[in-house]
Write a structure and sequence with these properties.
The structure holds two protein chains of two kinds. Chain A has three domains: 113 residues, Alpha-helical ferredoxin (Fumarate Reductase Iron-sulfur Protein, Chain B, domain 2), CATH 1.10.1060; 165 residues, FAD/NAD(P)-binding domain; 152 residues, FAD/NAD(P)-binding domain (3-Layer(bba) Sandwich), CATH 3.50.50.60. Chain A is 33% helix and 16% strand. Chain A has 17 helices and 16 strands. A five-stranded parallel β-sheet of chain A has the order 3-2-1-4-16. The termini of chain A are far apart. By secondary structure, chain B is of the alpha/beta class. In chain B, the strands form three sheets. Chain B has a seven-stranded antiparallel β-sheet with strand order 6-1-2-5-4-3-7. Chain B has a seven-stranded mixed β-sheet with strand order 11-10-9-8-12-13-16, with helices on both faces. A two-stranded antiparallel ribbon of chain B has the order 14-15. The C terminus of chain B is likely disordered. The chains are: A alpha/beta, B alpha/beta. At the A-B interface, strand 5 and helix 12 of A face helix 1, strand 7, strand 14, helix 8 and helix 9 of B.
Chain lengths: 475, 278
């Protein structure tokens, strides 16, 4: 172990090649590399890595199975607590989660837990997944609203416990941000589909094209016989900067840019019907993972130049280091300490430049990061014809607006307690609908916590029912 | 999948489909719309709900074949299926409960005006409708509008029937003749809606218009449909589609509606080789 202080590197598609296609960048471990990495784990008696995992994956145990060559066994073990391991293995910020706590990381690089999780999950997908035996049916029917990471996790966990679960999805395909937001080159849609199918194989029913709050209300769900509801409605309205020129043709929200590209496959226009206007020089405003996804899509869509415009410096960027590295290798340009002041348009109303102002870092703000301050008179114009605003989102307001008794914070996030219970009895919530823009794994953790609380609620509800005269309880 | 239970060819380029969509029909109100997708590789396009039949679980969609997706939709026949019909979306129209309202529909815009006129008429509001088209053969839903209007004025640009001129000119004529309206609802091409708002602005008559912006998801997620209303950016899909016509930045709306003009041509060119099917 000491002789291998670094993580085993994962093969990637060469940068010059991958910027011309939408295929996956990181190619994954083969069995040899996986075992080589797995033996780096020192199998702590009291593993601290698990405390960094919101879905409690039995990390040392699955790694041991990989080291022993039982790859499918490793996958089955992971899936005892995580329904979406091939997804997590790819998109979790492990450096902020499990790997942050890895004891090895104190002196060397931590064990590449994420890469190993991905390897085991991919191995099982290739070999063929056998769903676990269906548990005995328990009384209780749950509606899960939104088939994204939070909803899929909550639904899967409840189905495993024997509850009847129906997932309602607003879009035409399940997956939420996994399908509309995260690009194919980082998370292939076939992987998402396979893991969604696994959740469905646990007994979850899926209904697409239903917008809860419009097509059906939460009240309708209770009236239709659901005992409890989980709201995993996800991110909603994209944020803009409210600067002049933001509604010019050629200015996109990252949500629109990525939805057109990923969900609607605009990169295959015209064989897929949805178009996108890429332009020659694309500026993406923001420094998070979504900004990295958007800027890397720009190159793959055919832009000659793609630039990140971020108002703080590299150190403050919320994007994963790995994503920033990948972007750099792909020749993405970075303008740090730089903030847009207006979008310039031509006489036909199309973007022809982005006026920015230079920033310097001042005192730390509420987030603990140093606050960027404008440098007077330092305006300059970036020569671009497309601008993508990747500034985060606020939660979708539709459900809060149409559900009496459901409280939301002023900024739109739903109010919940530690278990995800909302202000309305029988209704739980989790994921971006509660937190605003966050990560896939945090949404999954919230789905899991809520599922646990919902099990208790349903058990209690039907225990008193069974003992109390036979009336079916009403919500 | 949504079965087409009835199809009417209203003009060579305008079709009416009555579609099985019980969940949409159960909840929808005048002013709302649906997102339609015709094939797995298809776009998501918004179409206003022109009418609905709650007991039958159907909604009526009227559309003009202006782009690739609407052309494909136009080839569908009774008994065929539409892949997705999602909704109802948007904010229901806030309609007056009494008084006198002018309902103006230009071209295919007569279809979205119809459910509002119908609801107003049924609640006892006096409805004066003005509908128009380039020529008589392009005029749609005249009988349906007649049935929900106390007065109906038909206009054609070429004079082939009714008043010879634009619907907005007719509106101006009525106002100049001393007719009073508590509200005007105008739906049609952006330039027509802008003209209607200009006619009523100086007279201070509240004028509602319905915007049919470019959308992707239709649920507030993407912001493709943004429009400036009263100096503020609004999302047509969750804040609209009906807005105060005196506040809408129509120049911007026109510009944004043309954003994918070139791509629309590319898509239509390949229409031939794909035979208009999926």
């Amino acid at each position: 172990m000491a002789s291998r202080p670094g993580k085993v590197k994962m093969p990637t598609q060469p940068a010059a090649e991958r910027v011309r296609n939408f295929q996956e960048v990181a190619l994954g471990f083969d069995a040899g590399l996986a075992q080589q990495e797995a033996v780096r784990c020192i199998q702590c008696k009291k593993p601290v890595c698990i405390q960094g995992c919101p879905v409690n994956v039995k990390i040392p145990e699955f790694i041991q199975l990989i080291a022993d060559g039982d790859f499918s066994g490793a996958a089955r073990l992971i899936k005892e607590t995580n329904n979406l391991p091939a997804i997590c293995g790819r998109v979790c910020p492990q450096e902020e989660q499990c790997e942050k706590y890895c004891v090895l990381g104190k002196r060397f690089e931590p064990v590449a837990i994420g890469r190993l999780e991905r390897f085991a999950a991919d191995w099982e997908l290739k070999e063929g997944v056998t769903p676990p035996a269906r548990p005995e049916r328990k009384p209780g029917k749950v509606a899960v609203v939104g088939a994204g990471p939070a909803g899929l996790t909550c639904a899967g966990d409840l189905a495993r416990r024997g509850y009847e679960v129906t997932m309602f999805e607003a879009l035409h395909a399940p997956g939420g941000v996994l399908i509309y937001g995260i690009p194919e080159f980082r998370l292939p849609k076939a992987i998402v589909q396979a893991e969604v199918e696994y959740v469905l194989s646990l007994g979850v029913q899926l209904v697409t094209n239903v917008i809860v709050g419009r097509t059906l209300t939460v009240e309708d769900l209770f009236q239709d016989g659901y005992d409890a509801v989980f709201l995993g409605t996800g991110a909603g309205l994209p944020k803009f900067m409210n600067i002049p020129g933001e509604n010019l043709n050629g200015v996109y929200s990252a949500n629109e840019w990525l939805t057109r590209t990923n969900l609607m496959k605009a990169y295959q226009f015209p064989s897929w019907d949805t178009p996108i206007k890429v332009g020659q020089r694309v500026a993406v405003v923001g420094g998070g993972n979504v900004a990295m996804d958007a800027v890397r899509c720009a190159l793959r869509l055919g832009a000659a130049e793609a630039t990140i415009v971020y108002r703080r410096s590299r150190q403050e960027m919320p994007a994963r280091a790995e994503e920033v590295d990948h972007a750099e290798h792909e020749q993405v340009q970075f303008k740090f300490l730089c903030n847009p002041t207006r979008v310039l348009g031509n006489e036909r109303g199309w973007v022809e430049g982005l006026e920015c102002i230079c920033m310097e870092l001042g005192e730390p703000d509420a987030s603990g990061r140093r606050r960027p301050v404008e440098v007077k008179g330092s305006e300059f114009v970036l020569d671009v014809d497309t601008v993508v605003m990747a500034l985060g989102t606020s939660p979708n307001p539709i459900v809060a607006q149409t559900t009496p008794g459901l409280s939301a914070h002023r900024w739109g996030g739903l109010v919940v307690d530690g278990t995800g219970l909302t202000s309305k009895a029988g209704v739980w919530a989790g994921g971006d609908a509660v937190t605003g823009s966050a990560t896939v794994i945090l949404a999954m953790g919230a789905g899991k916590t809520a599922a646990e609380a919902m099990v208790k609620y349903l058990e209690e509800k039907y225990r008193t029912w069974n003992g109390g005269g036979g009336h079916r309880p009403t919500p | 999948m949504h079965r087409i239970v009835e199809k009417q060819v209203l003009t060579p380029v305008t079709k009416l489909l009555v579609v099985d969509a019980p969940l949409v029909a159960r909840r929808c109100e005048p002013g709302q719309f649906v997102i339609v997708r015709v094939a797995e590789a298809g776009e998501r396009i918004p179409l206003t709900i022109a009418d609905f039949q709650r007991s039958a679980g159907t909604v009526t969609l009227v559309f003009q074949e202006v782009g690739y997706t609407t052309q494909v939709l136009g080839t569908k026949e009774e008994g065929d299926f539409i892949l997705d019909v999602v909704g109802p979306l948007g904010v229901p129209a806030e309609l007056l409960a009494e008084g006198r309202v002018a309902c103006i529909g230009g071209g295919v815009g007569v279809a979205p005006v119809y459910p509002k006129a119908k609801a107003l008429y049924q609640s006892g509001v006096e409805v004066v409708s003005i509908i128009g088209a380039r020529s008589h053969d392009l005029l749609i839903m005249e009988d349906m509008m007649q049935a929900v209007s106390h007065q109906l004025h038909v206009c054609t640009d070429d004079g082939s029937s009714g008043y010879h001129g634009f619907v907005t000119a007719k509106l101006q004529q009525l106002l100049e003749a001393g007719e009073k309206f508590d509200e005007v609802i105008a739906v049609g091409p952006l330039l027509m809606m802008r003209a209607a708002a200009e006619v009523t602005r100086s007279r201070g008559i509240k004028t509602l218009v319905s915007l049919n912006s470019i959308m992707v998801d239709g649920t507030g997620m993407c912001g493709a449909c943004r429009v400036t209303v009263g100096g503020k950016t609004q999302f047509c899909c969750v804040d609209g589609p009906m807005f105060d016509g005196h506040q809408v930045d129509f120049a911007e709306a026109v510009r944004r509606s043309l954003m994918y003009q070139e791509e629309e041509k590319t898509a239509l060119l390949q229409c031939g080789c794909r035979g208009g099917s999926e």
